[in-house]
Amino acid sequence: MSLFRVWRNFCTATLLANISLADLTERQTPRPTGHWLSPEYKWIFEYPLPIASVKSPKQTFKAPSGADIDYYEVELKSHQKQIYPNLPPTDMTGYDGMSPGPMFIMQKGREAVIRFSNNGPSDMSVHVHGQYNRAPFDGWAADTADPGQYKDYYYPNAQNARTIWYHDHSEFTTGEHTYHGQSGFYILTDPEEQALGLPNGGHDITLSLDAKVYHANGSLNYDTNNNAGLWGDIIQVNWQPWPHHKVEPRKYRLRFLNGAVSRTFSISFTPDSRPNSKIDFHVIGSDGGLFSGPVRTNNLALSMGERYETIVDFSNYKGQNVTIYNSRGMGENADYAATDLVMRFVVGDTVTDNTNNGPVPSYLHNVPAIPANAVAEKNFAFDRVGDKWVINGVGWADIEHRILTKPKLGNVEIWTLTNGNGGGTHPVHIHLVDFQVLSRTGGRNTVLPYESAGLKDVVWLAGGETVRVVARYAPWAGLYMFHCHNLVHEDHDMLVSFNVSTLSQWGYSPNETIFIDPLTPEFRPKPIVGEDFTDAAIQKKLQWFYDSDAYKRGNLAAVYSGLDAGGGGGGGGGGSGSATATAQVRGKTRLISRTLGPQEVQRGRGKRQRGASHL
């Protein structure tokens, strides 16, 4: 080899070795030239992805039965975060003074009490979105803690492993509060999942997708466009605009959440080496946990509140960038200069840890078959009336009418959800239950493979669509909410409730009320006073929760067995079903439900019973 070639190769190697991430980003980053609502953001892919801290329990109640309860304390408070490098920090309100809030990693079968103290500027109600909490701990929108109050939320952590999240749920202000920083991840894990050998530790990453608008001074701009929605021009992941994240050339588990107020996403992965292509990856789970087996795709669509778990293999892209792109022209989304970009993975050259880097298992989890024993089909239309978004003509402000339906505890029902005259996107979230998506007609006219592969608690209802879902209304009786997860729509006024009960009338037997009424006085927020925060006082409170046996010590098999034995499974005689029900709403008769079965549908008329006004 000539001396020149040796010198040339040496210089080339030295140059490559000294290429910094900033150099790589400078060469590879698109420079958007389109329209901005916010001040132009010029640092795309330059700043690293924030990773939320994991919250640790402050103490543990040692139960005689071994069913210990972990106790956590979280403080809601104002804080600042640097979003634009050249502008003042942005004012926010977050859990423990951070956005995203701290991440909870909970073990199945180990209950928890989280004390949320409100030292923020406005009221607070916290919803852990994705598990079956008893009604007083589910974040009922009217169960708000004022500044200077705290509330103890008692959580079961009894379901299968899943990616869930927590966020504010205060009536009429959920969107604004969440937009300003009140959300975080809540991960539930179990031995079955842990035995699968899925990527974990630093190879298991939570990614909350969001979209914001900022004023010229760097403050957040909450403009709802006449209550239609807030789509945002600044795409953020874990509250960082267009971040990068360094990965090794191996498999990663990426857990996606659409945490935006109104923007839907349709994402894909593209490597530098093939700029016009999309990388195939596996979707392994959704809202209700793991699928029975992986679903292969090269595109993932998420509406607000939806979660999907994926396995992405970077092994073929050593030394390259892999960019997540977002499709333009999604429904009523407004597209801006850089809303087609999400984040970038900077793939290294070597693997330092091959732990849990094997093939994706072909079997993951037992997903129950779609139940065939539905006893009722109910219809809910999501419409816009004037400046209000409503469900069957009713909104949250209509206190006397907002309980729309009463499933019998344990029954299986099919709900037909229709996007009515208001258009727009309505991701429908039903509290308490996991459901399965049966069909979608109109609009996209199909159920995507990863939508039907597992259990869900949010379903994307786009313009012109009708979606049918099936769920068993269990394991608890009580008042729960369902609503649009476009949080602008929810706040104006697309939020209603349903009453799961074993009773034939609207109301409750005396021994049933403590966990059924979400405003039960014993569980309401209380003033923050020092004596309530002593170790002795906390242990006494945890003993009280333990003695209440709210979650049957996690023995859900016995709960469901009891429901089945009592005819609550939906497969019993006709007495457990519901006849055709209608509701008189503002002078119009609306069909709500009909009995299912081979017999002719029974038809009836009558006004819907009213719920208690304080609910």
SSE layout:
Layout lengths: L2 H15 L3 H8 L30 E3 L7 E13 L8 E6 L8 E4 L3 E9 L6 E4 L19 E7 L6 E7 L5 H6 L3 E7 L1 H4 L9 E9 L21 E4 L2 E2 L2 E4 L3 E8 L6 E7 L9 E6 L2 E9 L2 E3 L4 E7 L7 E6 L14 E7 L28 E10 L2 E4 L11 E3 L6 E8 L6 E5 L4 E7 L7 H4 L5 E4 L4 E7 L5 E7 L2 H5 L3 E6 L25 E2 L7 H14 L7 H10 L15 E5 L2 E8 L20
Parallel strand pairs: 2-5, 4-9, 10-14, 13-21, 22-25, 24-31
Antiparallel strand pairs: 1-2, 2-3, 5-7, 6-8, 7-32, 8-9, 10-11, 11-12, 14-19, 15-18, 15-20, 16-17, 16-19, 20-21, 22-23, 22-34, 25-29, 26-28, 26-30, 27-29, 30-31, 33-34
Q: Enumerate how many helices there are, as a single number.
A: 8
Classify the secondary structure makeup into a structural class. Answer: mainly beta
CATH superfamily of the domain at 376-500: Cupredoxins -  blue copper proteins
The name of the CATH topology of the domain at 376-500 is Immunoglobulin-like
Enumerate the strands of the largest sheet in spatial order, edge to edge or round the barrel: 12-11-10-14-19-16-17
Parts with pLDDT < 50 across at least 5 consecutive residues: 1-27, 504-509, 569-615
Query: Which range best describes the helical content: under 10%, 10-25%, 25-40%, 40-55%, 55-70% or over 70%?
Result: 10-25%
CATH class of the domain at 376-500: Mainly Beta
Question: Describe the biggest sheet?
Answer: 7 strands, mixed
CATH architecture classification name of the domain at 376-500: Sandwich
Domain Plastocyanin-like: 83-192, 392-501
GO molecular function: copper ion binding; oxidoreductase activity
Protein name: Cupredoxin
Biased composition (Basic residues): 604-615
